[in-house]
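name: query_chain
kind: protein
chains: 1
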Amino acid sequence: MISKSGSLNPGIPKTQQTSGAETLTADFQRTSIDTLVSSAPLPPTSITIDDSSTVIVQVPGDISNTLSRLEPPAQPRSVIAGDAVRVNPSSPKPSPNTIIDELNRELPIGIELYRSYHYQVPLSKKSRLDLIVAKLYCPEELESKLSEWRAQMEDRFDTVTILVRRVTVDQNIQSHLRNRFRDFSLLTGSARPVLSEMINSLCGEKPSTSTVARVRKPRREDLSTIPFVAIDRPGTMDVEDLLHAERKKNGEVIWRTAFINATDYVQPASLLDKYALRVGSTLYGRHQTISTLGKDLSQNLASFKEHARRPAWVVEGRLTPHTVVSKSGRARVEYALAYKIRSAYVVNHRNVDPSLPLDSCVEPEISKSLSALAEVARILDKKRTMQPSLLRVESEDAATKLVAAIMIESKRILAHYLGERSSAPTIYKVHHKPSSQVVADFVKKLADVGIPAEPYDFETPAEFAGILRSLEGRGSPEAQSLLNTLIDTYLLRSQYSTKNEGHFGLRVDGYLEIKPRDASGLANQFQLAALLERRNPLPEHEMTRRASVLNEKRWRRDEIQYKLRFLEMLHEKLEATRSAVFLAAVAHVGDHGPYVQVEGFSKWGKLDGPHEGLEKDAPVAVTLKGFDLSSMRFVFQLAE
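structure:
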């Protein structure tokens, strides 16, 4: 998200900031991936997963005629994968307006929106709640403006309920900063070295161990003739997955997903393994990351690089379409799927600049692979979304949809592959649908905070929205805690578990992480490696311990993520205390002195020094004095 002032929202990881209009050029006529998707046999749909693992899905219409038949996966074997091309999604055209975009545009200046989610929550078979959760900061003097904005937006989108959640992480950051700068009230450019140290220590210091590959490596099959494709945003350094698909003459489509394999460099119980569990999952800041593996490994040996050999896990699927006429005379489509899991190397990873003519950088077989991948994504997506009870949000870009659909299926396959081998305990990501007992407990807890409710209120959108708004309006810690629990429960925030209890939000019967950017993915890689090499995997109690640690960390992840981005922003802005001049407008004139809205800064800034005669909306030129720790605002003065 971009704030009203145009500054980057510090709450969203860099890799997840999208305009909704990114496309992937995929053949010699520079056809976008949207065109490829529209040419595939099934109608489009949208799937993505946000950084808290909340499911975000747009469901198509009546797809009840799609059937699937699954065959058990074949035994894994070792491979070496080949020439990989990286394709960066581009943004050649603006995206269609969405509700979130409209909310951002109408948000009053001075209110900072840190993050917003748009959900359709299934409450029963016949009802859904269309819910916007807006995490924001609002100065006291703008509370009336916030109320007007919410009422205006709910009138405009009459099926939408907007829930406001106050961001309190500023208070934690304020305490954190004051502990490090006890003798200072105003931070200037001289504080930047300490801020750098604070950023680097957010998850503790990375172990200073040299990265050396293990001596004994498994034998791997050669897949050097397969032209894998990496679909990533420009500047991505930790490339952890590759894709490939091909159409056979008999109508079959074979697709492959390659995941980077870190087990040649990280071993269980090593210092790097312990560090990965401490981080939990890679944090993405404005310009840097805090990786589970450390930057040196995650952006080098544990990333698919140009002209480099990298170990990987490869999931292979085979789609065979069959047209069948049902008793009613309507055509339906059935797909038989068979899967194999392999271990691989990938070599000769080279970048493709989408701004160049494709006949100068993309080979015909790459173009065919991208087209086949779009078809595979459509088929897998439609098969998975036969049941419409899913959370929903506005459509993401087509490249994201393609990658998400194939990744979901690949991780489902891996979940069953590991699950069928009881000797290798696994960490799954699971989502639970709230049970009747859970609802009854909520009714009791609501009564404890003075809100009467009945179980059927949780199946009616208007009543459920009223419950959420009532809790929002109560300032007690008990009410706020219950509100957080309700949101996490009904928006299906995933948990880690060693029991495969399915993923209700994704509508899959198993889902796990395999990428090393998540500590559970690294642990699952240890188990895969042990199976293939016929070694003892990590025991059940150890995997349970890791899942428990990760569950505890996920509650603090948003706070650490925001701290990273906030400290980065502060470090970056304080460099301008030397001589930079900013354009600004007077935003507020009152008893506490004037505030200014400064270009490139999200919150209002305090104006220091002489300022007689200033009027609201007056244009001014200012310089930055520093950052005030008492008000958590930047302080400016009129430029000379």
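note: The longest strand covers residues 331-352.
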